[in-house]
Amino acid sequence: MKKLLSEYMASKNQKSSFDPCDTNVSFPKIEESILEFWKRNDVYQQSLDQRVGRERYVFYEGPPTANGKPHPGHCLTRAIKDLFPRYKTMRGYFCERKAGWDTHGLPVEVEVCKELGIHAKEEIEEYGVEPFIQKCQSSVWQYMQQWEQLTERLGFWVKLDSAYVTYHQSYVESVWWSLKTFFDRGLLYKGHKIIWWWAQGGTALSSGEVGQGYKTVKDPSVYVKFPLPDKENTSLLVWTTTPWTLPSNQFAAVNENIQYATVYDPEEDHYLIFAADLVEKIAAKMKRTLEVKSTCKGSELVGLNYQPPFDYFYKTNGNKTGTLKSGGRENVAWRITSANFVTTDSGTGAVHEAPAFGEVDYELLVSEKERFVDGQGPELICPVSPNGKFTNAVPDFEGQWVKDADKAITQKLKDSGALYLLDQYEHEYPFCWRADDDPLIQYPRESWFVKTTDFKDKMLANNQEINWLPEHIKNGRFGNFLESNVDWSLSRERYWGTPLPIWVCSKTGKMEALDSYDELIAKPGATGMEVWAEAKKSNPDLVEDLKVHKPYIDAITYDSPFDDNGTMNRVPEVIDCWYDSGSMPFAQWGYPHQGQQEFKEQFPANFISEALDQTRGWFYSQLAISTLLFGDDPDIKFPHPFENCIVLGLMMAEGYVCAKCKHRFADQVKKCTQCGGKVSRKTEKMSKRLRNYRAPNEIFDQHGADALRWYFFANQPPWTSIIYSERAIKESIPEFLLRLWNVYSFFVLYANIDGFDPSSISVPGQLDAAALATGNGYRPIQQRGELDRWLISELNQTLKVVTERMDNYDNYAACTKLTSFVDSLSNWYVRRSRDRFWAEDKQDANKLDAYWTLFETLATVCKAIAPFTPFLSEAVWQNLTKSMGGASTLSVHLCDYPMANETLIDETLSRRMSLLREIASLGLSARMNAKLKVRQPLSGVTVVLNNPTDQAWLETHDDLLKTELNVRAVTYTTDAGDYVTYQVVPNFKLLGPRVGKLMPKVKSAFAAADGKTILQSLSQTGKATIEVDGQKVELSEQDVEVRLQANEGWAAAQGVQAVVVLSTELTPELIRSGLTRDVVRLVQDYRKELDLQRTDRIKLTVETQSDELNQAIQENTDFLAGEVLAKEVNLNVAQGDTVERAIGEHTLKISITVAQE
RNA sequence: GGUCGUGUAGCUCAGUUGGUUAGAGCGCGUCGCUGAUAACGACGAGGUCCCAAGUUCGAAUCUUGGCACGACCA
After folding, report:
1. CA geometry: angle A825, A827, A829, nearest 5 deg
2. Closest residue by C-alpha to C1' distance, nucleotide B14
3. pTM of the model
4. Which protein residue has its CA closest to C1' of B2?
5. Which ranges of A372-449 does DSSP label H, i.e. alpha helix?
6. Could you report the per-residue pLDDT of A833-878, keeping only the tens digit for each?
7. Could you read off the pLDDT of A407-433 as tens digits, one per residue?
8. Residue ranges in A42-193 assigned as alpha helix (H)
9. Is-contact A92 A51, C-beta < 8 A?
10. Which residue's CA is nearest to the C1' of nucleotide B21?
């Protein structure tokens, strides 16, 4: 029955259908050759070409910045971005994938500054904007090669050579077009914004930068009296930790809903108003007794005027009033207002407001301003210059750095009697991350804004139509962010960015926006183009795109259309680089100056995916720009510019940290190499600084791109945070990739031995069912054996689920299904079919069925996993189709995605087979429990089913169970007598709603009742009753569930559907049979020890004093000889090299000599 | 401080509209197989489903309040 390896060796010399495959597979090596194959045949392009004219599936690439090395997080993004376009392409869509690069912005400038060893803005100016920009432009491509390499190595199919680049002229002009549109529609305006300002460096810091520089510091904490003219001898007690902002005070804020107390301070003979909850605390600080005279709600204080502690502005404007929109007049400043951000957590419950130096303060000013008729409200007071020093508006402190002035200001408050209490306050305060000792200040700067708030409702409506994965992003993080939308602060006082395309008239200050370079230079009186021309002349390598950048674009001026003597100059700002990337839906085509057709066909995107950190980044910038630009167009429906968005989780690194010295290790170590401390596992944020992750290339080289991809796709839904651990990646290989590979190599091994030749198919193509049907010896599925039908049924069931899940962007569930199918394929189909592959007759129909079934399954699985693991599937496909000499589809990636043929899904068979597998598993479990190893044959098992429906079918599979369980007989019974107790439990789902509160009592009634009686009644009459509290509850068959309980004293195992009971009685004959198997095992071990070839035939001598063993071997000589390839078996005195072994109490000596052929 | 998310086995994670025996893989242990063989397979141990209260006949699942962690924002 078994085939000799020598035949296999011989078959190698014949023409074989498949290249033999190495069981010691190296996936990385295979992948390299597949990459080569794809490149040679331009397979990606072919996959597109064959879909031209089909419905499009539009993918937008969120542009990465290539000025840093790619890290594992980028692998995940790129893997997901590859998966769905590949899948959709196979499903028949036309899916072009244009790459893109984000190139502008502060991070690029910072990199260049680092390289130049400078950091302040002045230093950039000193170095020269022109060479600086040129450096930025080239620095952007610093790691380009690594990015392209990663992209290709990961198998991310994307058009790199036609990538869009945000600094390209066409891109910039497209962005200009959108800005001009906004400008012309009045959506672009200039306003103030309070930003974190590095005064010494003269630049703003982004929130990310600010976040890096927090330090714990002690600041003065001052409690200041703000006298209330309307209340005699009474002050509002106000608290601040920035005394330097007091000269700029404009309001005091209270919370309308907090209770405020008027307290009397006998030592000062003065009344103070502050939050009632804080009276004790402040009294304690002052070490005084404060008497509460009355309390009131904050709302009663709102509107009162006060005298600020400094009168630099108050003396001229203190009594200024303005007309309210609601009618009436009110003081424009130095008035108590309400603000709900005021709390009693610290301070006094009354907050000093200096709108110039606090973002919330500023918002308060803006909302105050809105209450007044235009032009009559409060104006911003800012007596500090951008260098952080007081101006002459505050003569007492003029020229002092504000933080230094804190002391003098506090002293002055003391002198004037305004200071009530001086304390210290410890808190976190931001410092410049580049100049450690420079505290940042909040400071107002002029900035250009996009009026996104006008479109809030439209953006929300647009958002509602987007399919977010995970769903909670829609109304959670992203929705909330939209709800609290503020106008987009667009401009940056920097150098390397898209210039804001607004030109101002030198005479009138009137402005216009332009949207192309050609339009600019064609303007009447346009001059300054020579600056670029000269730069280009002296360095012909300069890329043409730089001419639309600073400083060249700034050099160009033209005659003002607004005033005959005026000149138009560009405003100095560049724009936020997020605006660049958010414009890609149209700017990637240079729309509308060019690419109108492309835009029309590829807007909006069906699919995008980025990580969670893009919520306020690219996801928002795209949605905002798109909604503002196209939201009013009746022809463009929501959602746009993207329909489905997978929001990826953040990637964590697995590391090991020493508990003692905090030293970090990438690999697991037993003890800290630095201090010998205990090292424990820790997952934390990936960080370049900690170097707590392995470079992607190392993973590719050791485990391969498919391993990494499959790990990403199959181990968790993509939106959970993913731990990037080499260990985990490695461990996920055997479960799927290797298991599939083993099945495949098993197939190749035997197909070659038997000369199975699939090239008999007349038109192979994609090896679909119709093509296969023409093969030699191919029989329709229905005519094949049960195992084959079962496998094909499972296969189609799998395809059905996988396509359903993938259509819902659920790659995780799809992979789970594929994994379980490959498990069934390997551990049931192949395992149970092995002897068919070993069958003697090469033309045996049953054998050919096995080949065709496995071949079809492998080919189909190949196609099904192609989007997930493109390399492995290609490698298998190439070999499966090798013999067809080009008549089959060139690449698996040019195939259509396999769809389920539902007529081949046999649910009954599927159910039965899983029952059979369960019984086998129970049998093994019972053996384990009874400590009866599988090698020991048993006389039989008894299977007790709790539902006899499938018994007849099972009985036809006795042989299978006999082999699996090594028993001589299998019997089924429904009356298990002593083995089993029937337990009848209520069907809670059905009975629960019906009996309601009676349920617990029903439950105990069931427990008390005799299961057998109920079952009998049910099987005879179809119903039964059970008594609860004197009430009768009618039961139908659906109302109960039967459970079997294996009784004590039997070697039995119970499952959900059956109990399997072993016959444990061992006859001498059974024991001898088991002993023989033990001998086989020992001999095989010894063969291995002797390094014998698997094909070597031997002469075996066994010497033993045990009569029983002698008898066993004599009875089973043929079996023994067959198993160990022995030409002869002797029971003599062992000679030559012998080993002594024992089986239980039997000892034996074994000697082996290789038999000559 | 706010918002969002997460908390289930040693680890990484599933868990469908609430239904009473909570799953998978890895790891670990025991064993098997030795013609897929530097593989492979079976079985097993391991859980206060973060805590508490509530709703319900019934809660890992729903509600509320805590706690812890993470992210974003302030």
Report:
1. 45
2. A716
3. 0.85
4. A341
5. 402-416
6. 887 887 777 778 888 999 999 999 999 999 999 999 999 999 999 9
7. 888 887 778 777 777 777 766 677 776
8. 43-49, 72-90, 106-116, 121-127, 129-139, 144-153, 169-184
9. yes
10. A1056
Query: φ, ψ for residue A574 (rounded to 5)?
Result: -105, 175
Q: Are A133 and A495 in contact (CB under 8 A)?
A: yes
Strand B–CB A317 distance below 7 A: no
Phi-psi sector, A353: left (phi>0), alpha (psi -120 to 50), beta:
beta
Q: Tell me which range, A20-24, A51-55, A418-422, A1041-1045, is most confidently predicted by mean pLDDT.
A: A51-55
Ramachandran sector of residue A721 (left: φ over 0; alpha: ψ -120 to 50; beta: rest): beta
Cβ of A1122 less than 7 A from strand B:
no
A1045: nt with nearest C1' to CA? B21
Question: A476 beta carbon < 7 A from strand B?
Answer: yes
Nearest to A868 by CA among A79, A54, A20: A79
Instruction: Provide the CA A717 to C1' B69 distance, Å, integer.
Output: 20
CA A700 to chain centre: 20
H or E element: which one contains A1036?
strand A1031-1036
- Strand B reaches within 7 A of the A1096 CB: no
- Is the CB of residue A705 less than 8 Å from the CB of residue A697? no
Return the DSSP state at A389.
B
Q: Which nucleotide is nearest to A727 (CA to C1')?
A: B26
Active site residues of A: 63, 102, 578, 614, 618, 685, 688
Least confident of A429-438, A487-496, A741-750, A1125-1134: A429-438
- What is chain A's length? 1157
Is strand B in 7 Å reach of the CB of A387?
Answer: no
- The CA–C1' separation of A928 and B30, in angstroms, is 9
The encoded tokens of residue A463 equal: 């958002």
Nearest-angstrom CA–CA distance, A63 and A490:
19
Q: Take residue A764 and report the two structure tokens written for it.
A: 């192979």
Return the percent helix, strand and coil in chain A, to nearest 5: 45, 20, 35
In this structure, how many other beta carbons lie within 10 angstroms of the beta carbon of residue A1124?
A: 20
Chain B bases having any atom below 7 Å from a protein CB: 1, 3-6, 11-14, 19-21, 25-27, 30-44, 56-58, 70-74
Dihedral over Cα of A703, A705, A708, A713: its sign? negative
pLDDT tens readout for residues A540-581: 999 999 999 999 999 999 999 999 999 999 999 999 888 999
Distance A734 CA to B38 C1' (A): 14
pLDDT above 60 for A686: yes
The tokens for A817 are 């299904």
Pick from A906, A692, A922: nearest CA to A790? A906
Residues 913-972 of A with CB within 7 A of strand B: 921, 924-925, 928-929, 933-935
Provide mean pLDDT across the span A1138-1146.
Answer: 81
Q: Is the CB of A211 under 7 A from strand B?
A: yes
